Amino acid sequence: MSGCGCDPARSWRPPWGRTGGWRSAIRARCRAGRYAQAALTRLGLWSSVEQRLAPAQDVRAALAYVARGASPLGIVYESDAYADRTVRLVSLFPAASHPPIVYPVAVLRGASAGASDFYRFLGSGAARSIFARYRFRPLG
Question: Which domains does the chain have, with CATH numbers?
Answer without folding.
Answer: 15-97 (3.40.190.10), 102-140 (no CATH)
